[in-house]
Amino acid sequence: MLSIGLILILFFLKNLFNYFALFFITFLRNGILEDLRNDLFQKIIDLPIAFFSEKKKGDTIARMTADVLEIQHSFLSILEVFIREPLTIVFTLILMFNIDVNLSLFVLLFIPISGLIISTIGKALKRKSDRVQKEQGEFLSIIEETLGGLTIVKAFFAENQFYQKFAASTNRFYHFNNTLINRQNLASPMSEFLGIGVIGGLLWFGGKMVLVDQSLSGTVFLSFMLLAYNILTPAKAISKATYTIKKGDAAAERVIELLETENSIKESSSPQQLDELTQSVNFTKVGFSYGDHALLENFNLSLKKGKTIALVGESGSGKTTLAKLLNRFYDVTSGEITIDGINIKNIAKENLRQLIGVVTQEAILFNDTVANNLCLGKPNASKEEMISAAKIANAHDFIMELPNGYQTNIGDGGGKLSGGQKQRLSIARAILKNPTILILDEATSALDSGSENLVQQALEKLMQDRTSLVIAHRLSTIQRADSIVVMDKGKIVEQGNHQQLMQAEGAYASLVKLQRL
After folding, report:
1. Do 284 and 249 have their domain in common?
2. What is the pLDDT of residues 75-88, one digit of tens each?
3. By the 8 A CB rule, do 383 and 415 touch?
4. Is the pLDDT reported for residue 11 higher than 80?
5. 283, 447 in Cβ contact below 8 A?
6. CATH number of the domain to which 431 belongs
7. Pairing assessment for the beta strands 280-290 and 334-339 based on DSSP bridges
8. Residue 226 sits in which domain range?
9. Are residues 371 and 402 in the same domain?
10. Residues 322-335: what's their mean pLDDT?
C-alpha cells in the first residue's frame, strides 16, 4: 500500500508541476507575442512615408502576421524544451559518471558529432525558410494590390491576369514549403538514427568491458544502459527543437530587420513648441532629391500669416512635394523650411502636425463611424463641435440623412458615400482640427461640377483667417488667392496674383486658356 501511495503521489506531483510549468509559460509566450506585435505596429506607424514607397505593403503585413506566427511556433512553443530537457540530461550524466567514467566519456564523444550533423542540415533549413517567408510576403502583396485596385482590375477585365500572377506565387510557395517541410521532417529520423548509433556503440564498447575485460559487472552495465536510454528522449526533443529554431531564424531576422530600420526623419533632441503661426512659413534655398532624381532645386517661397498661396503647374513640377516637405513626411536635401523663423526639424513632429491641416485630392477615410472619422485630429471633440464643423463644410445635412447619423459606419475607405460627400467630410475633419496652416492638395479636381461647387464653398469657409497653401489643378478655383506660384521642374517660373499673371501673358495665362477650351 505504501508503494502504491508513493507512486500515486509522485505521478500526481509530476503532472501538477507539469501543468504549472505550462500555465506560467503560456503567459510568458503570449506576453512576448503581444509586445512584439505592438512594437512592430509602433515601428510601422513611426517610419517615414519614403520607407513604404520602396517596400511592398504585403511584405510588411507578412512580417507582422506570418513571420510573428512562425516565431511563435519556432521559438516560443519550445521554451520549456530548452529548460526541462537539458536539466534531465545533466542530472542523468551525473549519475552515469558516478557509475562509470569511461562509458560516460564514450557517450559524450557522440554528442558533438550529432550536433555537427544536425547543424549542417539546419543551415540549409534556414535558407529554405527564408525563401518561404519572402514568397508569403509576395502573394500577400498581390492580394493587397488587387483589393486596392479591384475597380480597375474588373474594368479592364484583368481578373485572369491577376489570378495567374497570384497562382504563380502560390505555386512557388508550394514548392518552397514542400522542400522546407521535408527537410524539417528529417529531424525525427535523423535524431532517432543517431541515438540508436550511440546505443549500438555503447553496447559494443560496454559489452567488451563486461565480457572481455571483465572490468564492469553486467548489473552495473544494464543500469548504465537504462540511464543512457533515458538521455535519448530529451536529446531527441532538443534535436527537433534545434531544427524548428533554424526554420524560425529567417522569420526572426525579417522581424528584427523591420524593428531595427532606422527612421530617417529624426526628432530633435530638444524640440521647440509652437502654439500657432504668428509671422510666416519660409522655404529658403530648398532642394530635394528622390534617389538620383532632383525634384526641387534652390526653391524660395514665403507664405505670410493669413494669406493664401496657390501652386500651379504640370504634374511632376514639385507642388505636392512641397506640401510633403512642410509636413516632414520627407526631409529637405538642402536648404531649410522655417515657421516663424524656427527650422521645422527643430519643432516636435507631433506639434508640427498639429499646426497643419491637410485636405488631399483623394479623401482618405477609414472603416469607422462618421464621428470617429471627424475626430481623428481632435479625439475629445464634443458633438456640438462636430456638428459645427460639419455645417461649415456643408456636410451636416447629408450626415443626418444617413441611417444612424454621426454614428453611421461609412465602410472601407468611405465607400458608402459619394465622392463629394467624402471630400466634404474630410474638410469637416480639417475644420474640427482647427489648424493654423492649411494645405489643400487638389481638393476638388476629382469632383463633378455640382459636388465641386459645394466643396469649394466649404473650402472658402475653411480658409477664412487661415494661412493656406493650395495645390490647384482647376485654375478657376484659385483666382482669389493672394499669390499664385507657377512651377516647372521644381522651380518658380512666374509669381503674382491672377490679374498680374494674366496681363503678363506667360505660362499661367497659357494654362488658363487651355482649361477654357
Report:
1. no
2. 766 766 777 777 77
3. no
4. no
5. no
6. 3.40.50.300
7. antiparallel
8. 29-80+88-259
9. yes
10. 88
